[in-house]
What does this fold into?
Amino acid sequence: MSKTTAEIRCAFLDFFAAKGHQKVSSSSLVPANDPTLLFTNAGMNQFKDVFLGSEARSYNKATSSQRCVRAGGKHNDLENVGYTARHHTFFEMLGNFSFGDYFKTQAIQYAWDFLTEELKLSKDKLLVTIYHDDDEAFDIWSNQIGLSEDKIIRISTSDNFWSMGDTGPCGPCSEIFYDHGEHIWGGPPGSPEEDGDRFIEIWNLVFMQFNRQSDGTMQPLPKPSIDTGMGLERITAILQNVHSNYEIDIFQNLIEATANIVGTDDRQDKSLRVIADHIRSCSFLICDGIIPSNEGRGYVLRRIIRRAVRHGNKLGASGVFFYRLVSALETQMGEAYPELTANRELIEKVLKTEEEQFSRTLERGMSILNNALSELTSDVVPGELVFKLYDTYGFPADLTNDVAREKNLSIDEEGFQAAMAAQRKRAQQASQFDTDYNELLKSNCASEFTGYDKLTNQAKIV
Ligand code: ATP
Ligand code: MG
Ligand code: MG
Ligand code: MG
It folds into this structure.
């Protein structure tokens, strides 16, 4: 029997705890003390001030399984969901951290030992990348670990150089990849085919060793540090002998529950994967205190919910369905995250309300969109139409884009932005006069107007 996701999470934390690392609980998806970050997107986020030296902890080595969301901001994998085998909006990042304690030699050795001794992965399925001028890392992988030179790939892009910002701590990375086999399309990192899913990145080891000054010079840090991140779902896929993250235990169960609720037989349908992914991000975001709204984090949540609802609708779901998956999620993840159980009713209520609100206009919006698409003479969806769907039917632009992409079409982003700007201008001009409530009422009824509050604050997050 292969290990479950829960067992692998435990194995990782125990491995590093046995090596003197403090087990630290996952922090919230809403980053504390970091207004620049939309959502927690890496294990290191909660240790940022420790790395910067402005916060002291009672330990100098830590390990965690951090819940992360990458659905906006610098890291945005929303568009990848349903299209790659390896991306989620919500995932767990396993990490080990050294705050000025061990460095490169030890970090590489730990990672290798965990993969090949603890998890017993086959050594010849693994290959690594290093930053092009990091001869020290090359030497460790080659001489200490014994990896053959053709499996150590030098990369010169920022993918293999991590930095916290324009100045401050930074350093090269070394990423570990797993070869899922020749039958899957894709080439090794650095090759033209690397976007395929044959070679999947599983673990990123970051060697924080410089402090970048405002003039660009790199000062060596007095106490170099280590930050690593490994996707729990990706390592689980390998250990459960499947290629895609969506075939691991948690996802298979969520997909099964979704298929039963919406009443579909085709377990391979992409929409099932999208819904199974989205129920995790939406539930955990609500659990961490985010409520659907028209701006900021709440708007990202709203967009993900609406996407999920649209995919359910596409599969033929009758009535509200999305909130009914919370109980399946709780079965899968409630033990590791008791807060999911504690907040279950709230999560269900928020999702249900949002879904009911959106369902009312979804059908009409979809029929307008499908009609317009069938009459299209180019492969670009006009910005005016994207705007109308957004303004009248609450279809965020990325939702329209999701539909368009299924038909190999793209959307006219610029035209959409221009229509948004024009609308904002009209709203501003109108607000210079007294409101005629009778007129407003008439237009509300005529077009199922969903509220002026949407108009002013969205352009930045389409
Ligand atoms: P990729 O190149 O595959 O998008 P990444 O380089 O963006 O991954 P990192 O920022 O290095 O990822 O994050 C560390 C690890 O977290 C990755 O090696 C991967 O195992 C995991 N990971 C990153 N993004 C996702 C995601 N969207 N879904 C699931 N796991 C992820
Ligand atoms: Mg990425
Ligand atoms: Mg990468
Ligand atoms: Mg990476």
The chain has a mean pLDDT of 91. The longest strand covers residues 199-212. Residues 70, 77, 86-88, 91, 93, 201-204, 229-231, 233-234 surround adenosine-5'-triphosphate (ligand 1) (CB under 6 Å). The CA atoms of residues 328 and 336 lie 14 Å apart.
